[in-house]
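Pasting as-is:
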Amino acid sequence: MSSSPTESDLPQQVLTILAAQDLAASADFYEKLLGWERTVDVPVYVQLTAPGGLGLGIYERESYGVNTGQVPPLPKAGHAGGAEIYFYCKDLEERVALAESLGARPLSPLSKRMWGDEVAYFADPDENVVALARPPIED
């Protein structure tokens, strides 16, 4: 009979990795949007790390495929891809304006959603969905 995992058995950090057609453009987009430190920078991969330890990796698409055994298909231009990254932002309006100035393709404007968050949706340079959000403000 197996026992339930303890907290120390569970994963402690998250590193999300995206495949990018243009590594330099995608890395530049996320570095400017998030303001996170570039902690890995090699010819096929860039990793950004938040002060709390969360990470975002951007992998050149063909090299990503070497690790997985398959190169992910490119979404059709103008069509959102199947991945979404949801970022909570204290400075939401400023971050939304920054995403727009960086050329992110707007998908859905900033508005309150049925689950309570205020969220704006964009497509990044590789058509991945980027959500910039703020949770409901408690009175």
